[in-house]
Amino acid sequence: MNLVLNKVKKSFGNMKAVDNVSIEMEEGLYGLLGSNGAGKTTLMRMLCTVLKPTEGSICYDGMDIFKMDAQYRDIIGYLPQEFGFYPNLSVKKYLAYIASLKGLKNKVADRRIDILLETTGMKEHSLKKMKELSGGMKRRVGIAQALLNDPKILILDEPTAGLDPIERIRCRNLLGELAKGKIVLLSTHIVSDIEAIAKKVFVMKEGKIIKEGTVEELCSNIPCKVWLYCLKTDEAEGFISRFKSSVSAINNNGKYTELRILSENKPDDNARLVDATLEDLFFYYFGIEGGDKYD
Ligand SMILES: Nc1ncnc2c1ncn2[C@@H]1O[C@H](COP(=O)(O)OP(=O)(O)OP(=O)(O)O)[C@@H](O)[C@H]1O
To answer: Which residues fall within 8 angstroms of residue 32, CB to CB, at 6 or more apart?
Structure first.
């Protein structure tokens, strides 16, 4: 099973939202990492046949997905950033409604819904109305609706957006489990969403995939050095303002402050060289404005 994108482009007028993307995915979970406006949603919408590429092809097991048409849509599950939301339906009724839209027979739908309520930890909330759910619960229902047809390909656009840290961990664990036997592509601008679970990460910037590889490969090939430097907190401010655009993390423990600095040169005699993390890589390519760890 594979999904192959060959020189895929999508333009809106003169704007190249996706620019010459060629990637290949097999079974497993893939992360699509990029800042706001990088082109992630546009790419995902093409993978779901919601949008047609301006140029290039997307093939599933060698077949053009746009020619496969309904046959392809039967094997795909999609969680858009904003999914259709019926506030007065209970979770169970909402899932039954989406199942009927997807053409599932009642008996099959009932069985799938029971399994998915269990898998997503929503069983005890199944009679709650959609409007009564927390952000995390809504995302879990969103994942459940994408899984109703037991898809071979699962496309999730920022599934953890707006979740608190506990819900985010829960969501991450669930997705790690779900990836068995499927191609899962998850977009995010939050490194920790994919760091531990992605088989491979695609880094997207200005419509292009600028890097791809396992987390280890990406981190070991970051084109600069990463330094850890611990200094007294009252001395840190001046140092930070001097190295501002190179400081990827600040950890203040009261009396002392620890800085991660991306620099070719040793920033201070007492700084020590450390291994890069995916967070450092994101900072290297997108800078301070690129992500929002607390989103
Ligand atoms: N229908 C459209 N018409 C015109 N421009 C569009 C359209 N859809 C997307 N764009 C533009 O294409 C670029 C990529 O947008 P896209 O939504 O794919 O990025 P993204 O990486 O998903 O960002 P975010 O994380 O903010 O959702 C942006 O500059 C956006 O304004």
So the answer is: 40, 43, 44, 185, 186, 187, 188, 201, 202, 204
CATH no. of 3-220:
3.40.50.300
- Helix axis angle for 106-119 and 91-101, nearest 10°, is 130
- Which token pair is 114? 């029971």
Residue 87: Cβ within 10 Å count: 10
Please indicate whether residue 257, judged by its CB atom, sits closer than 6 Å to ligand 1.
no
pTM to 2 decimal places: 0.91
How distant, in Å, are the alpha carbons of 90, 153, 193, 225, 234 from that of 252?
A: 45, 43, 24, 22, 11
Express each pLDDT in 189-238 by its tens digit: 889 889 889 999 999 999 999 999 999 999 999 989 999 999 999 888 88
- Is 15 touching ligand 1 by the criterion CB < 6 Å? yes
Mutate to test the pocket of ligand 1, among 8, 12, 282, 286 (most ligand atoms within 8 A of CB): 12
| Domain positions in the chain | 3-220, 226-275
Q: What is the ipTM of this complex?
A: 0.96
